[in-house]
Every structure is written in structure tokens, then in C-alpha cells.
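Before relying on records like the one below, remember that each one covers exactly one chain. Contacts with other chains, cofactors or solvent are not represented anywhere in the record.
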Amino acid sequence: MSQPALLGLDIGTTGIKAAAFDLQGRELAKAIEPTPTRRHHNGHADHEPAALWAVCVSVLGTLASRLEELAASPVALGCTSMAEAGLLLDARDQPVYPVIPWFDYRTEPQIDWWRGHVGADATAAICGVVPHPMFGMPKLMWIRDNEPDAFRAGRTWLNVADYAEMRLCGSKTTDYSLASRTLVLDLVEKQWSSELLDAIGIDQSLLAELVPAATKVGTLLSEVARASGLPVGLPIVRGGQDHVCAALALGVIEPGDILDSIGTAEAFFLARSEPDMSGRLWPDELNQGVHVVPGLTYVMTGTGDGAGRIDAHRAELGVDFDTYLAAAVSPGPERDMIESLAVDGQVLFERMVWAADRDPVRHLATGGGTRVPLLMERKRTIGRRRIEVPEIAEATCLGAALLAGAGVGVYDSIVEASAHVLAEP
């Protein structure tokens, strides 16, 4: 009898991954290829949709081959992606313009207009996030303002994961966690905000249908099955935003759970039972959204220079990672750098505790920074808290796979799916 496998596809900023897991969340196989990104002389960057899709098919094909070798049978597939990038499709579902990535801030003029004409507080009072160039709707506005022919041809705006799901099964939907990063989701009502859309002059008909994560949205098309080697009719299940899928896999599923993702940047993710629309979070840009777990919302914040500081300092000194960590045991610039990272992270963590409206909270950590012993020791000492470090390498793919399992009835609920993950803190 073949082993059942749940699949997750993650379209990330630097890499596109496909991974398969058993029903306890143990990784069976994976494939990864670089995300194709074009960088232009004017400072803009973009992703060609056809190139993104080709890599998706390639990694899924590699994964399918490895699963065949393992005698494992795919049960369902879920997709996740970077949150704020999206693309506009015409009436034939063909892209009319490349994907503008989240880190391309060409949309600053649109956000300046937004702040002046709609207002930062008025926006946050509806969607729980403060206007910023990274979000989805400023990108659509940029296309309207700078590529009018493309905009006139447009019929549907999709997030990147939404686009992948459309190519897989033909369905055009988005989930609430991805919609939370568009800047036009009514966070309380969980529907598109007609007030914000009217204010920025965008027709709601351009936006995809909102459905909860873990909704089965279709089955794998025959042409995709032929190209990838995956079975025709494989259930395709609605995934979510990459950070939120990772939080699900890592067990951040109860109010007061805080995830500290210590990568090149450092990001914090807090689970809440309901949004805080009092206005107290907005000055610190503690942005909110909808969790993939029913009934939960989240708060996110972060800094662009997390553990990447260590890599930059190490390169400046001309030493390798192990040499750097050995030097940090004694007083000196290496130890000072790690101390500054721990102190700055604690400032952000305490903001999240404040946003949680409760203490004690549960502190979990993930990412490359957790492999720096002195950093984790200092974080625990400064914060005077226990920090759990789940041993899950591909949390984002796993989160999408768990949603897929919940969507086809492998698990009774999304929370039960997370509980099946075998990870010792």
C-alpha cells in the first residue's frame, strides 16, 4: 500500500519550493529552484508570470518523480506565496503586465496620494494596516497610472499564490490572509471594502472571490498533470500567505502565541482572538490580518536587518560563520553585534506582548538565527522567557500542505492538522 503524501507549493521571493509530507508532517521529499526575477536599470524589479509558472511546474515535476521513487501517493496540494505581489489578467486569463514584487517601491507616489486623499488612520480603521508601498492595491494603481492600455485590458487581480492555483485547476479565488495584504480588506467584516475601493477608484469586480483557507477550489487540470507528472484530478486546496502558513505549521494557533522569525530580516507574528481596531497599534505600524485558523487574526511587525547583520559584519571582517561565532564567545565586536541583535529584537517582542493584551505569552522562534547559540541565550536572558524552537525546516510548504489535508478531510479541522505535526520544542 502506498504512503499518502500532502503537498505544498511555496512561491517565495528568492526560491520556489515544492515539498511533500506524511500525515504527521514529516518531510518526504522536496524540490527547490530560484525564483526568476528581472532587475531593471531604473531600479524596478519584476517577475515574468510565464517564468514563474514554468518553475512551479518544474519543481512539482521533480517532486512527483521523487514521490514515485518512494511509492508515495499525492492526496492534495495547497499553495502559498509571498503576500503583497500580484498580477492583472485579461478576459482570457492572460497576464497583461509582469508581477511587481513586494520589495519594489515604485508605488510610493500612489501611497503618497493615498495618505493625502484617503488617510492613514481612515485606512487602518477599516483594514487594520497602515498604507505602505509594498501592499497589493498600490501596485494595481501604478499599472492604472503608468500602463493604461494594460489596465484597460485587465479583468482580474490575483495574488501570486492565487495565480498558481488558477493555473493548477482553473479557479480564481483568494483567501483572507492574502487579502489582508492588499490594503482593501475590511478586517472586521472579512469582505472587500467598498469604501476604500471607491476612494481609490478601483472596481471591486477586478478582485477575486474571497474564500477561507483550506477550501477545496478544484482539481488538477489534465495538461498540468501531463507536464508535472502529478495525477489528474489531484485536489487543489486554497492556501494562504507565506508567513501565516508557516505560523500554522509551527503551532502558532492560540491567542498569545508569538512567532519570532529570525532570518536575514526579523519578523514577529502574534495570534489574536479578534482584531484590535482601537487605533493604538497603528502608530507603531503593527499591522493586522486574518489568520488561516478560523476565528483568529494576527499582528505582524519586523525589521529589515535581523540576523543579516551577522552575515554583513562577518563579510566585513572576512571570516567564516564558525570563526565569527567562536570569536563572539569573548568580549569584542562580534559579541557586541549579537548583543545588539538580541536587544533590538526584544524591543519588538515586547511590543507584540503589549499588542497581545495578555501575559504570559508563548514565545516560539524559527529561522537561521536560531542556530546562533549566543543569540538565543541572550534572547532568553534578556526576555526572561522560555523560547521554543520547533525543528521544522520547510514550515511554509508544510503549512500549505496541512491546509490541503484539512480541505480534503484528512484532518477534521485546521487546528487538528497543526496538532499532527511531530515537532519537539
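The longest helix spans residues 333-356.
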